[in-house]
Predict the structure of ABC transporter ATP-binding protein.
Amino acid sequence: MTESVLSTFGITKRFGAVTACDGVTLDLRPGEIHAIIGPNGAGKSTLIAQICGGLRPDEGRVSFLGQDVTALSTRKRAQMGLGRTFQISALAMEDTVLQNAVLGALGARGGALGLLRPVLGDADLRARALHALERAGLADQARTRTAELSHGQRRQLEVAVALTLEPRAFVMDEPMAGMGSEGSAQLTQFLSDLRAEAPILLVEHDMDAVFALADRLSVLVYGKIIATGTVDEIRRNPEVQTAYLGE
Ligand code: ADP
Ligand code: MG
């Protein structure tokens, strides 16, 4: 058995009468893309928030790199190497692409992560940022104002910014959202290459991307995982077809 990088054990989150997550147990293994799919309101974003630390589960726990992180802040989890991208972009639109990447490398973005990171010289920061931009296919746009990027390029930049912190695992909430087919093909290739470096827990509505990328997928319906398996296993699962895929 391969040791998991990231796991949840029976996490439950209630909002009043709504049980948004109901005893969710899943794991993310080295080298894989594990996709979470499910209809709107299934609890996907609530699940991600508990994994990243924005929400505390009512029950259950979250483990990262063999450590129980359930009580740790978002910042602390990020410092441990939990990289994430957001459903709603958190980029500074008036800054250049490179500035956004440098801020990411500094760890200053989204809550002063840099405080506990070793202090880096500017040259190091820029080199790290440029390297991430190159990998994301954005090196030529380094000096472009972020607002001028296409939607797809901004999504690539989101991943590049996360990459500058050299994460041990990625958590992504709908990175393909609102993308055209060209942009999503490019991002699909980028994520496919990225998994060898750090496994990816991927919440995504774009089924073409999910079927192309996922090593395993879990189906979340009304806060519960009703099935986990390979793409083939999930497509053949009659319960999944009834509840979600409608095939
Ligand atoms: P998904 O991301 O799969 O669309 P969410 O995790 O956003 O689903 O939501 C799951 C359920 O929890 C929904 O019924 C939603 O209305 C509810 N919910 C999510 N966040 C809150 C909140 N902060 N307060 C109250 N209800 C919430
Ligand atoms: Mg959501």
About this structure: Confidence is low (pLDDT under 50) at residues 109-120. The chain has two domains: 1-81+168-247, 92-166. The CA atoms of residues 176 and 184 lie 6 Å apart. Residues 92-166 form one domain.
